[in-house]
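FAQ: What does the model actually see?

It sees only this:
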Amino acid sequence: MERTRVAGIVPMNGGFAFMHRVGVKKRKDYQDYYTFPGGRLEEGETLEEGTIREIKEEFGIQVRIVKKMYEIYSEEFQRKEVFYLCEYVEGEFGTGDGPEFSNDPNYADCGKYLPEIVKREDVANMVILPLKVKDKFMEDLKNI
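And it is asked to produce this:
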């Protein structure tokens, strides 16, 4: 099975929901950055189901898929990455209980995961990974 990561772009409260990654030891290039919430697909999941599950695990909120925005291939991680625009449905932001919050030793070098809502006007000045998705996102920002 091809390795695939799914992620959601979630507009909220006049900004966007991001996972702020701080103190990431396993990366040599970036130890402090933002990323769209997401992760690997589980066996038998569709891309959309995986995106919804990952956002629930990471942020504690329920979302609805609006449309597919981007698909890239990451040479660095040898995987396809698919990004969906999502709409907030319900739930309390910041109550995620996914494995990245459980002191799982598999995440020891991954640093802290901090759910944050970033104001629209602050997005341009942030390090958002993957960089090629940030570039596309910045082009589309006025239409989201």
